Amino acid sequence: NLPMCLTQNMREKRIFARWWLLYKEMLHRKMKKLIQIIFVTIIFLSSCKKDLPPATQTGANTFGMYVNGVLWIPTAPCALCPSGSASIQFYNSLAKGLLAVSAKKGDEELFFYVNTHYAIGNYPINKIFYNAPMQDSCYYYTRYSINSNCYSYRLIDSTKSGINITKLDTINKIVSGTFFMTLSNFQGGQMNITEGRFDGKYY
Questions:
Q1: β-bridge partners, 22
Q2: Of 153, 165, 154, which is closest to residue 124 (Cα–Cα)?
Q3: Which of 105, 99, 142 is nearest to 118 (CA)?
Q4: How far does Cα 78 stand from its chain's mean position?
Q5: Within the chain, how many helices (H) and strands (E) appear?
Q6: What is residue 170's predicted lDDT score, i.e. its pLDDT?
Q7: Which of these, 144, 94, 142, 87, lies nearest to 115 by C-alpha position?
Q8: Closest by alpha carbon to 117, among 99, 142, 141?
Q9: Average pLDDT, integer, range 101-114
Q10: Cβ 163 vs Cβ 123: under 8 Å
Q11: What is the pTM of this model?
Q12: Tell me: the pLDDT tens digits for 118-177?
């Protein structure tokens, strides 16, 4: 009869409503858990992301740059430099205080030279070592060597380079700065070095 049918329909609706609430609660819990997992993953990946070293001026032995947009941090010790840092040397006997910097990552190594005039400020990067004749060994050039091939990339145009010496402490022998340059190879390819920075003690 009709009253019994109505009663049964109401029971079915209540049962369906309870199951629907239970389903929504389970779905909410799953979504909440999923959001937590995504959040933790993002935090973890962010903490693992490598970036340039801080721009310090304390002689912290740090070095970093971007090579064609890819982060480049030294990983192998070059001659006379700490692992993960750069070799920084002043040639005090030469005019204008020649600064020589080199850093190595695996089989790749950057060398560059600049006349600092013993003062902070902006300078172009030298194409060649002080007074070195152009026909001399490629080791006199500002260059980026790959697999010990010092002709891989060289600085051809000093106007496409620059260095900003931000600190030069001749008492504690600390030098810090930022730099950029565009190097070329014999095939016409270019290498863009940007956002370079270093902070170290020179010898």
A1: none
A2: 165
A3: 99
A4: 18
A5: 1, 11
A6: 86
A7: 94
A8: 99
A9: 90
A10: yes
A11: 0.71
A12: 889 999 999 887 665 555 567 788 999 999 888 899 999 999 999 999 999 989 989 999
